[in-house]
Amino acid sequence: MITTLLTGLLNMNHLLPHLIAQYGSLVYVGLFALIFIETGLVIFPFLPGDSILFLSGSIAAMSTHSLNYITLIVLLSIAAIAGDSLNFELGHHFGGHLSSPKWQRWIKPKYLAEAELFFKKYGNWAIFLGRFIPIIRTFVPFTAGISKMHYRQFILYNVIGGITWVSIAVLSGYFFGNIPIIKAHFELIMLAIVLISLIPMMVMLLKRTRKGSDSNAEE
Question: Is the pLDDT of residue 212 over 80?
Fold first, then answer.
């Protein structure tokens, strides 16, 4: 199911223009829902928000389509901020229950552990920095809620991070998404965006693994 969903999302460069032609402005609702779900529901960390934002920006640059990049930035920033706020509240009120073995099929302990490590390492800035790392992006606000972080502190970094993430991704697509070489290899570019954005998490995992190996060697 997840593989099918990801395959469909990676083919959005063909699907999204068709949806715009058929449904017009209603596509904004779908994009809003997708970003809100990725950031707001801890069981959907695999949705490629970066790629969708980039694609939306590139389509907005085309005169043949009705998407507006300013509207995208405003609406999807609201979706990202609202999503993280929901995720924070889920962690704050239900984090203990949702972290139990019963939920491990949906909320991977490995992802939650990495988010907790990321949050401990960067403190409040993890809310901002986590926006740019898939999976971590979904789990950090949940972890912040579990840690009982003050909501006033959380919402500040949430708003700054949400607006910055959406603006950078949409504007990158708007200005660079229709360059011929990028347009000709759009599927590969979208896949590359996902892989590149995963690099910080991979580096963190390698450091943690190496640290664990060093500790075992000393023992």
Answer: no
